[in-house]
Amino acid sequence: xxxxxKKSPIEFNQRLLFPSNIFDLLPDDHxxxxxxxxxxxxxxxxxxxxxxxxxxxAYHPLLIISILVYAYNHGVFSSRQIERRCNEDLSxxxxxxxxxxxxxxxxxxxKNNAAYFNECFKQSVLLAMELGLASLGHVSLDGSKFKANSxxxxxxxxxxxxxxxxxxxxEVDSLIEKANRCDEEEDxxxxxxxxYEIPEDLKHxxxxxKQIQAAKEALEKREASIHPGQEIEGKKQISFADKEARIMxxxxxxxxxxxxxxxxxxxxxIIVAQHLSLNANDKNEVEPALRNMQETTGTLPSKLSxxxxxxxxxxxxxxxxxxxxxxxxxxxxxxxxxxxxxDSNRNLxxxxxxxxxxxxxxxxxxxxxxxxxNESKAGKKTxxxxxxxxxxxDYKSRCCKSAKGEARTINTDDKEPLRQxxxxxxxxxxxxxxxxxxxxxxxxxxxxxxxxxFRGFSVRGHGKTSGEFSLVCTVxxxxxxxxxxxxxxxxxESGNLVANMA
Length: 502
What we know:
Nucleotidyltransferase, domain 5; six-stranded mixed sheet; five-stranded antiparallel sheet; alpha+beta; 16% strand; globular
């Protein structure tokens, strides 16, 4: 006995007698309708002015940016896959208005409009603030690494670049000399051969030499901007594919990456500022973060929190803004250990030494004063005690670790008073209550971004990757606005988004 399975509707194999709208097949509450309303809020005037009236009509920039945002929101980043989805997926077809550009157009638009993506991000922030989704009451700053469109296997160190340059120059000179003898010795040298083998080899060597010299020059330029006046370490590397990407990583996993920095508002996890850094750590990221927030929102937040990766003198100095209340976690070298100094199992850290700002010195747990011994032009300071006093100190085994038996030293910089002020501030109970909110403000945002599938860039070069990072942050903000509509906090009215009054 056969089982009576359901049959396909008769319309499946028949053409409709009367035309219908295929988008009626989508649920009435499908998110693509909401996104279409959100995209209407974006202003593309600055892009439209760049188009010419001559030639074939171009795709409207709002159409392409809408397709890109919707695709990134659904974890589709390849331009070919975006085009495919726009021809196969009903919701993508609705967003593209069944007029999807070729994947080359999508790819070129993404490469060539970094400045507009940053402008688009600013529009998303201002729209969120206008709808009451961000108040800048408490903003948290954090960074995360994203893979560059390159490979660590297609790279070379500075020493290797110099060696390879010399090798190729010698080979090129040898081939040129050999090629110059071709006319005289052609019959004898090549016999039945064409005589073109050497010039082809020479062409290959010259092209390779140009690549090596270009990479070497780019590495020298990069290091000169980061460490002016300093000699370049031989182990410094550069990628041939993306010469501006840097080797970054931790726990033994290193690759060419960029450091994405975001400032997230507490209210609805709206990203209110972002930038893409070439630095592997976060010790100099506060100033650009505040500058970008000022440029985007026109103001600074009431409170700002950041983890101990931002605990540096330069960052603390950048936070000395009267209207800004900052909270930066102290790291292990700065934070006092709750274990008693009498605990013989614990080595003494810098936090166990008391800093006297008036006399600019440190006092060790044994009562000895460590005076300033050296100060560099860059502001680095070294304080040291007396070898004789340290030799007789009860804390010597847990404090002095010099193999040469030298007295204990403390290294800091000219921003030590700011560091001590933050140490004291973060010991307060109220500060700890404010700071602990950071982990639920900014950290989930990077998780949300990476869970959509975005973990690396599709373009190369710092300028273009900065544009793509702006696009990613825009996608995040528009997704939050869409969720606010679903919650009833925001509504669409005559093509505009308005906040529902509480």
